[in-house]
Fold:
Amino acid sequence: MNWRRLAATGALHVLLAGALSLVFIRELGWAAHAAVSLSLLVPLLLAAFPLLRGRDSGPRARRVLPIVLGAGLLSRALLIAVPPSPEADIHRMIWEGRVPSVGGDPYRHAPDDPELAELAAALPETYDGVNYWKLPAIYPPAAQLFFRVATAVSVHPSVMKAALVLVEGFLVLALVLLLRRRGLPPGLVVLYVWNPLPLTEIAGGGHVDALGVALLGLGILAAETARPAAASCLAALSALSKIVGGVLLPFLLFPARREARRPLRVLLAALGTTALTAVPFLTPGLLDRGLVARLGEMTGSLWLFARHWRFNESGFLLFETIFGEYARPAVLAFVATLLGVLLYRRVAPALAVPLLAGAVFLLSPVAHPWYFLWTLPFMVLHPERRVLLAATLALSGTLAFAYWAPWNVPLGEPWFLPWPVRLAEFLPAGLILTGGGVLTLVRRLRTGS
Structure:
């Protein structure tokens, strides 16, 4: 693609990002949200297609990356400045970041605790936006520390979103370096940078997944550059931002190359990082009921979420039909088996991570759109997996249909999705995967392989 044409495509991307910000400002509803999100895939594909075909190389390719990153930064600036997308996680994050400022503990004191009445009076808009008032914090320690730092600057949602976009920049840097290590055009990062999913969920909604995914991306980069201890520390920090970030650790303990095994060093690095991060939450005053009780406080809301929450499930419905009340353990067993297979076949972390994260997303009883952030950026590193990449891009756009719930269900009530909306969300990616599988099978039968 001519660089001037790419610049025009980037301008279209920024224009559509402006339209997305207008959807949030004017509260135009889920249909407008979905339409703009799907439209954002158009400039992304226009920019990526020449790179995927290998047409852009040589000196002119050097202009691609600055244009891609510049347009991505402008689009994020537009969304940082507007009110958060219509769900309440960012208010909970701001609230928990300020709880220690009044002597409270987010793992012990739920938002409706009388001991936090002073904070509720000081932050009425934040308090009114917090969901599940009777539940203490669900976010792990690294996320809690991040909330404290961000809210120490300001409690305005735009500051939290700006902090997350800053962190996201490290993920983009890791992706660019990983693409270069593979001999791929670094401009392929456009598949992530111009994607509607991170625009909505990080710059728009301010989800802490950005922190965990960025740390995971840096961990994969460290693993590929023979820095296992650093990779282990980053993977531990990712898990301490959101538990799924720990998916990288098994591949560090059992790497593809036997001669690279350093399990004790990797394990000690992860344990040390975990201990240091947990120290602020294990002070003598907080251990007055004992260590076991304190760990119960820190994980209680997470276990409640894992056992009872449901929203936007897809593959989980099949497991539920087969296994009934044992569907959740069956899903865990399936994911553990998939992990074992990937380890046995020595699949590289950069591919194993998105495969596992994607499987968890599709099989989970809770599949919020921002959970797919753990899959999308790492599939960008594998353009040769055309069917998987196409399905990933399709789902990253159609996940906007899941916003039917926050746009239409009152705050505090359980979210649900009508079946036509859910089909519109998952069917395109499902058809791509099915069609790709059938074509692969036919090709193998013809060649006799």
Summary: The mean pLDDT is 90. The radius of gyration is 22 Å. The first helix runs from residue 3 to 26. The CA atoms of residues 322 and 330 lie 10 Å apart.
